[in-house]
Design a protein that fits this description.
Number of helices: 6
Shape: elongated
Helix content: 40-55%
Oligomer: single chain
Order of helices and strands: HHHHHEEHE
């Protein structure tokens, strides 16, 4: 090995020409920014900013895009998805179950879906199907969106009158209790 070969090269310090190029580029960018700000002030005085030939945030957008943007900005993805599930309830649980059981509400904090059935027999049947439904809903909505399904039987107004009313009775003549 000879001593004339240079060792590993280090980046040399920028020379005067390189420094001048960097300074010129920075000055051009600053001037462009000042010009953009001045033009925006002028347009604001003339009656507001106007959209030109290029697309920007002020242009109209399709309704679906606007709604998706709003849902994302507000963090409503899970409630919106659960609302979609309530609309597709017959496809998720099947036509027979959907005829007799209807989703009523979703508690986002506890991640609980409340379902009301039209008879105690269907309420019992849905309680047996609840783990399968929770798995199917979480597969559709994302893991952990629904933790529990609360199933309620038929509801009705309390009977306040009549010869066969038992003291403390509150429900319809069904066996649900």
């Amino acid at each position: 090995m000879s001593t004339d070969e240079p060792g590993p090269r280090k980046n040399p310090e920028p020379s005067g020409v390189d420094l001048a190029r960097v300074a010129l580029r920075a000055a051009k960018e600053a001037a462009r920014a000042r010009g953009d700000a001045a033009q925006q002030k002028k347009q604001a005085r003339r009656g507001g900013l106007r959209s030109g030939a290029r697309a920007d945030g002020r242009d109209p957008m399709a309704l679906g895009s606007a709604i998706n943007r709003l849902i994302t900005e507000r963090g409503w993805e899970t409630p919106a998805a659960v609302g979609g599930v309530m609309g597709r309830w017959p496809q998720i649980v099947g036509a027979d179950v959907a005829k007799h059981c209807v989703p009523e509400r979703y508690d986002e904090g506890e991640r609980v879906l409340t379902v009301r059935c039209d008879s105690t027999a269907w309420a019992t049947n849905l309680r047996l199907l609840a783990p399968t439904l929770v798995a199917r809903l979480n597969e559709d909505l994302g893991h952990g969106a629904v933790r529990l399904i609360k199933v309620f039987g038929p509801g009705g107004s309390a009977r306040r009158y009549g010869p066969l009313r038992a003291p403390g009775s509150t429900g319809p003549g069904d066996t649900y209790g």
